[in-house]
Amino acid sequence: MQLYCGLTPDFLEVEAQRDIVRRLQISFFDYYRYEPSESEKKSWHHSLHALAAQIKRAKLADQGLILEMQLPLTSRRLDAILTGHATDGEQRAVLIELKQWTDAMPADEDRCVEVNYGPGNRTQAHPSYQARDYADYLKQYRTVFYENQPVRLEPCAWLHNFQGDPDSTLLDHSKFGTVLKEAPLFAGSDADRFAEYLNDHVGAGKGEPVLKRILESKFAPSKKLMEHTAAVIKGHPTYVLLDEQRVAYEKIMLAARRAARNNGQRTAIIVEGGPGTGKSVIALNVMADLLKQGKNVQHATGSKAFTENLRKALGVRAGLQFRYFNSFVDTEGAEIDVLICDEAHRIRETSNSRFTPANRRSRIPQVDELIKAAKVTAFFIDDQQVVRPGEIGSMRVIEDAAHALGARIIREKLQAQFRCAGSDDFIDWLDQLLGIRDTDVSAYDANNAFDFRIVDSARELEQIVQAKAQDGMSARLTAGYCWPWSDPTASGLVEDVTIGTFRRPWNAKPDAGKLPPGIPKSNYWATDPNGIGQVGCVYTAQGFEFDYAGVIWGPDLVYRKDRGWVGSRSASFDPAVKRAKDDQFLALVKNTYRVLLTRGLKGCYVYFTDRETHDFVASRVVSGASTSSA
After folding, report:
1. Using CA atoms, how far apart are residues 214 and 46, in angstroms rounded to an integer?
2. Mean pLDDT, residues 382-387 taken together
């Protein structure tokens, strides 16, 4: 999708008539069904007037031009692409990042600068990095940029209000030297040099056929990207399949082969499994092997922390394959071969968010978008891991949607436990304890291989977790959402989790801005060693596993002899969960503690803030080794 495309003479005429903003505005509304903001329209007016002047200066009279082109499977739009031929006859395109900045200040973050935006400064990607990243993305995902005789794409940034001060942070070669060579930055005072650059790349004209190739090119990851991602995943020693995991894997691979021969028939595969049954291991193996076969495969979750850590672990290039459930709103029918939906219990009713304007909101169920986006959609799910309202992912929801869309349904259930020291008993006991499902395990043997203990204080719990970490094992302290969550201050995180004299901060908020050194961002709390000093919540722990998990069981879920399990809305500080109906609230907090208590590979230690709840759970642990004293 793009808001405008045409040849440079046509653009110059429209811009001269002061009509380009109106045309962009119409295209914007036709596509998004709401009006662009005033600030965006002002930006178009100023930057495109400057671009028109530069096109005239460079005498580009036979080039193609694309404005506001959306990057595939993202909400991002690049500013401009000029198309044409170089003097050697090669087809070229120049991607231009347009900025109205007059200057920028240093930022602590790599690849970033600080920019003044009226009431305060914002941390922004350096324009050259932004242009280069957009170009790299297109080179990986648009066939025209990597197929036989590809169009050569060159990125650059043009800051038409910047006067090119050589001492500016923007031109700091000690920090940005490499990217300034890969994606040169031109100031307003560099108009002649910029014109020469444009002529070098597209000055020979004949831009229309190049423009047409780009507009008609398909979305598909390049072979190099697929091979790279597959190699990275396969090189990870933990991604090994066993037993029924292999069966689920083979069913998905067979469905992918059949889909290639069966045009128009969609398939929904539902792989159900509790915590630690290896759902993510299967998902990544499927992804790696299908990528090696040249299939267009995408991986999606509803968890930002989980997805961002996958991207970080697999590297920038491989990370391009990992997305979110709301990334497929505008995906054309079945253009993806296989879409892997991990943590499918986090599917929401729709892909709308609180930032979606009212007139842009869709009524299409998110699960329908996911099924429609691919020939085969594989859902990995645990119905008992829904932890907040709006998350509706379940076996029934997926099956109903698949039936309605005429998709073939394949089901597979995982039983074997690869977390909790391989203890099926622990999961069965926990589900029986919480009344989530009926099992025959009413008591847990504390001599089991999985080390489960109830401790007498939050301080003792933290000491055990930290001792495990000091011994070289992964360990984290988590809690139910039973304390306020403050914004960080200039000196650091606020110690909100308070139990007597025990005071510790939550992990950083997801929307926290600049943090003091040594404090990981929310997405990386589970994997950054510095996360050990903070208390995590279910939203940062879900999807991850540690050698040892420490859990503070708060007063939002308590046991009462005469009533059973009781959900205490007044004890919860989770704004979304507090709005749930009574029966839903109880189910959500039960699922929350189920998730937190099943993060451990080798052990889990728990402190209860409520004594009656402590006593009830302790009575369901046998052998007399269930408690320890401070």
Report:
1. 26
2. 84
Give the separation between CA 268 and CA 252, rounded to whole angstroms.
10
Distance between CA atoms of residues 194 and 205, nearest Å:
17
The pTM of the full predicted model, rounded to 2 decimals, is: 0.69
Which H or E element spans position 251?
helix 244-261
CA distances from 60 to 52, 92, 159, 251 (A): 10, 14, 19, 55
CB-side neighbour CA atoms (13 Å) of 572: 22
The four Cα atoms 352, 353, 356, 362 give a dihedral, to 10 degrees, of: 10
Considering only CA atoms, which of 158, 151, 157 is closest in space to residue 202? 151
> 413 pLDDT exceeds 80?
yes
Higher pLDDT, 512 or 200: 200
Of 112, 107, 97, the C-alpha closest to 154 is: 97
How far apart CA 355 and CA 607 sit, in angstroms, is: 38
DSSP designation for 6: E
Contacts of 175 (CB under 8 A, 6+ apart): none
* Secondary structure of residue 387 in the 3-state scheme: coil
- pLDDT at residue 359 above 90? no
- Among candidates 541, 462, 532, which has minimal Cα distance to 502? 462
- Return the structure tokens found at 563: 């009533």
- Look up residue 6 and give its two tokens: 């045409």
Residue 302, token pair as written in the block? 């509803």
Task: Decide if 321 contacts 287 (C-beta within 8 A).
Answer: yes
Q: What is the pLDDT of residues 111-126, one digit of tens each?
A: 888 898 767 777 888 9
Please tell me the number of Cα atoms within 13 Å of 402 on its side-chain side.
24
Instruction: Provide mean pLDDT across the span 161-183.
Output: 93
Residues 6 or more apart whose Cβ sits within 8 Å of residue 60 = 8, 82, 84, 198, 199, 202, 203, 205
CA dihedral for 552, 556, 557, 561, sign (positive or negative): positive
Q: Tell me, what's the pLDDT at 244?
A: 75
Pairing of strands 535-536, 564-567: unpaired
Question: Two tokens at 564?
Answer: 């059973």
User: What is the sign of the dihedral through the CA atoms of 211, 216, 219 and 223?
Assistant: negative
Give the span between the Cα atoms of 231 and 314, in whole angstroms. Answer: 10
Handedness of CA 330, 333, 334, 335 (dihedral sign): negative
For the chain, give the percent of residues with pLDDT over 70: 92
Range 197-215 average pLDDT: 95
Within 13 Å and on the Cβ side, how many CA atoms surround 346? 19
